[in-house]
Amino acid sequence: MNIPNFLTILRILSIPLFIILLSYGFYPLALLLFVCAGVTDALDGFLARTFKQKTTLGAYLDPIADKLLLSSSFVAFSILKLMPVWLSILVISRDVIILGGILVLLVNSFSISINPTIISKCTTTLQLLTIGLTLLFQVMQNKYIPLHLVYWITGLFTIISGIDYVRRGIRLINERERN
């Protein structure tokens, strides 16, 4: 167990506490924990690269930690009526479709490497920004700051990214059938 993997596991273990804080309206503490999760995400990647501590476990755990935090945040925010339900449905549906596609490819013995694209990285950044801004505005107790534009942009990028992953999966299947 190295420090980057420990930080990633710590991030995963902090998710229930984050959801509990949200559920009870402790938004300042939830925001602090969310920021800490972001810092540990950046830190574990930096440490793994700098000290050559990249591991197979870390390569799997890091994106899982990100998806767990984002998915649980979007669901909780929707349940608490802090953001539109449609956005959470888009975010969760995209991830389920991607996971389903990966499982279909693996079951059919496709060799796949999961490398995030620019659009995927932008989508993740926008999703994190959406969660962070929504929390920040709750802490500021300003419910009149319109985040609708942020929600729509995040939704649009989520759709485009999902379509891109589906397109990439279909291309893999078509390439195999041609050979």
Provide the fold topology:
Blueprint (H helix, E strand, L loop, with lengths): L2 H21 L3 H24 L5 H24 L5 H23 L10 H22 L8 H31 L1
Helix pairs in contact: 1-2, 1-3, 2-5, 3-4, 4-6, 5-6
Overview of this protein structure:
- With 179 residues, the chain is mainly α.
- 24% of the residues are buried.
- It has 6 helices and no strands.
- The protein has one domain: Four Helix Bundle (Hemerythrin (Met), subunit A) (Up-down Bundle), CATH 1.20.120.1760.
Radius of gyration: 18 Å
SSE run: HHHHHH
Low-confidence stretches: none
Helix content: over 70%
> How many discrete domains?
1
Mean pLDDT: 93
The separation of the N and C termini measures: 42 Å
Structural class: mainly alpha
CATH topology: Four Helix Bundle (Hemerythrin (Met), subunit A)
Distinctive features:
179 residues; mainly alpha; Four Helix Bundle (Hemerythrin (Met), subunit A); 0% strand; globular
In short:
The protein has 179 residues and is mainly alpha-helical. 81% of the residues lie in helices and 0% in strands.
